[in-house]
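So, could you explain the following?
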Amino acid sequence: MLRFKAALANRVWRRLCEPARRRFQQSLANPAAAQSAVLKRILGRHSQSTYARGLGLTPDSSYAHFSQTVPIANYADLEPFIERAKQGEHHVLCRGPIRAFERTSGTTAGAKWIPFTDDLRGEFQEAVRAWMGDLYQRHPDLAGGRAWWVVSQLPPEPTVTSGGIPIGLANDDAYLGWWERKFASWLRVAHTTDLTTAAHELRMAPDLRLISVWNPSYLALLLERLPPDSAHTLWPALRIISGWADAGAGADAQAIRKLFPQVTFQPKGLLATEGVITIPWGAESTGTLPALHSHFLEFQHCQTREIFRTHEVRLDEDYEVILTTSGGLWRYHLQDVVRVTGWEQKTPRLRFLGRADGGCDLRGEKLNPIFVQGALQKLTLAFAMLAPAENSPTPGYVLFTSDPEVKAAALDAALSANPYYAHALSVGQLAPARIFLVSDPLPTRRYLERCVQLGQRSGTVKPAVLHPCPGWEKWFCGKFRAHP
């Protein structure tokens, strides 16, 4: 009966996904038209919100008028309007009721409150259906079993804002469309926030065909709770593992690939609480594709600061993502950095490089995660994370790594490719870097556990090569290297 239900639910979902897949496929030759239609839809629906009306937007505003009128905004710019919406005021940033506020927290800032609306759910759903439609077409045997999904980690108990709006969605099914929610229990193995319980549920799922997680290290934590080398016998029909593989997640993704050599590992698209930026598409592994029919996307060049639309970006250039959604985010500076790696017809393939924020600047050295990622890749492929030293007489950095071969002098030399770091080091503003040899057998697990303690959601913690918080010396097991 279980196999029959899974097959029926998959057949229904595949048929629901097919129109979105076709729309996406047809738009690859003309991404400009697809994105123009998205902007027109958002303006037609939400230009009468308080925020948009105050800027003079109308349903018929052109892109030229939109780009000249609407400022690029960070969270602090929109926060006064979000606070009004949290208190129950209607139609502040967008039209229609806010179903919940999703909280997202970074490593350096307090909680951000992202409105979740029916229209925004539709934009998420469009992207997920296009992605899953492509997966079903390329891997038709996925329809023969269930999937295990991790979308988010839920708050411990439901709460509401001062205006009575729920904080956090009731469950992960809220991201799905009506039909998907109806068949959710047939489509997927239940996901619980307790990994021991999740491991038990997965032991009972021999028909598992798809695993979808964000951080690959989260899957590694789950596998620890299963008998050694049992995954292949527990899930003989497993076909796809989907997870992050870019930026700091590369090593964890490679570890999962080695554990499941017969299973296709599909790098995850770039998705944030705020919206969908890219989705996986096809067998290509050099980049994912912009979610052309979900939100309106713009890209700010990392060097020139010029703004480009999706069809205007250039090969091998780096851009920060600007997002406009039906959830009330207008030209929102997401601070995720992507690189154009190629083309699918006339649509750019994008690879996530890291965050533009989350940098460290103890003495004017201006380190950022993308630079540090490149520097560490030259030194080691093992676990490695740079963080400020705690209680150091002279400020400096510690590299927490499981690689005993990394030398402090080599680390300082690599970081000195940044002239600001080199200057601060040479004049004594920064102490020489130190190496902390991590003896934890699973350092990514310890990293994840502390991030949860710092207020992040375990299912969506992104691997970090540069963490701005000190105090990791007390968290990891290990010791400082006595000699540089």
User: Anything to note?
Assistant: Residues 369-480 form one domain.
